[in-house]
Amino acid sequence: MHKLRAYVFDVDGTLTLSRTLMDPEFKKFFKKFVEYHKVYIVTGSDYPKTLEQLGKDTMHAVIRSYNCSGNSIWERGENIFNNPWTIEADANAFLENALQESNFKIRTGTHIEQRPGMVNFSVLGRGATTEQRAAYVDYDADMGERAVIATQFNALYASTGLNAHVAGATGIDIAPIGKDKSQILKDFDDMHVYFYGDMMQEGGNDRPLKNAIEARNSTQDRTFTVTDWKHTFNLLKEAY
Predict the structure, then answer these.
(1) Cα 92 to chain center, whole Å?
(2) CB 87 within 8 A of CB 114
(3) Which pLDDT score is estimated for 19?
């Protein structure tokens, strides 16, 4: 039996700049692409933020949106599943301490954000301006702060069943082990998967899904590590 192909996309750094709206030209192309292909979204962001970035028309056109790394699932505006997990006090205290110890001094609020089935941690915070985000990106590129915090967190809490991954431009995603993006692959047993993401490196939040896809050993699956939305745009124009 011939399997269908599923196109699965991360959002920040793949379809958009981090936490920004989709480029109008790319969005026009992507909407047409969705008409002719089976398209899915998988992102660490919650649904309202993804809806803001991609627009209602796009989000209602894709088959399914796996938000919060698959812990909150949406189909055409309807929430069909939420994972009820919340972070324990001890792990939350670790994040509070990491926030206090960071040498990056800009703070913009909402640093520990509980989302369905996961927590997003950001030293910078979710109220940052574009310029403040750029400043933290430069700082993190030099210092590797997020990777250090995630590694320290995992050393302490992996034994309790939690895992942290660097995510987006300024954040760290934390969830129970196995409740990362890799969990969505169970819904694609009967499909070939083309997965596009920018955080495929070891410790990145796209890496678990990349590893799970590669473990299927299918010659028809593909994973694409992209540098930004323009890279994705060019790859899709070739695929179209």
Answers:
(1) 21
(2) yes
(3) 85
